[in-house]
Amino acid sequence: MTGKIIRVELSQRNDYRFDIAFGDDMPLLTSDEPAPLGTGLGPSPVQMLCAAVGNCLSDSLLFAFRKFKQVPKPIQCVVMAEVGRNDDNRLRVLHMTAQIRMGVLAASLEQLSHVLAQFEEFCTVTQSVRQGIPITVEVFDSAGQQLK
């Protein structure tokens, strides 16, 4: 089975700080571990994992609503990762929770139950990460009503 290859280049700058190049004239991103390992001059790898999951879920929700010509924006997403020790006493991401808030009331969206039932399946990153890390996804409307 062949698929598209995504290439990202990392170059160490100092200790745990890396410049990350995505190509195509995109700006560099600097990552760094927080103290005491690094200096915290950029997002940590766990923070970037959270960002990737949240971004992909938000994109997938928007994509699913747009199929029905619905506009749930602006979308906001908060992703939290629980980091702790596994059975081998190694630090691991043990669980993630993504909370998505849409910018409109649930009552203003058609096909809401259909979209909520399927949008996660479009999320390449979340479905891939879920193979090793449990991820809870919650969706709220603009009034804070939990829909999922």
Outline:
The protein is α+β, with helices and mostly antiparallel strands and 148 residues long. It contains 3 helices and 6 strands. Helices cover 24% and strands 28% of the residues.
Protein described:
The chain has 148 residues and is α+β, with helices and mostly antiparallel strands. Helix content is 24%, strand content 28%. The chain is built from 3 helices and 6 strands, in the order βββαββααβ. It has helices spanning 45-66, 112-118, 124-129, and strands at 9-14, 17-21, 29-31, 76-85, 91-101, 135-140. A 3-stranded antiparallel sheet has the order 1-2-3, with no helix packed on it. β4 and β5 form a beta hairpin. The longest helix has 22 residues, at 45-66.
Shape: globular
- Would you tell me the structural class of the helices and strands? alpha+beta
What summary fits the major beta sheet? 3 strands, antiparallel
Give me the strand/helix succession: EEEHEEHHE
Strand content: 25-35%
Determine the fraction of residues in helical runs and give it as a percent range: 10-25%
Over the alpha carbons, how many angstroms does the gyration radius reach?
18 Å
Tell me the distance between the termini. Answer: 34 Å
| Counted beta strands | 6
Strand order of the largest sheet: 1-2-3
Residue-averaged pLDDT, rounded?
96
Unreliable stretches covering 5 or more consecutive residues: none
**Tally of contiguous helical segments:** 3
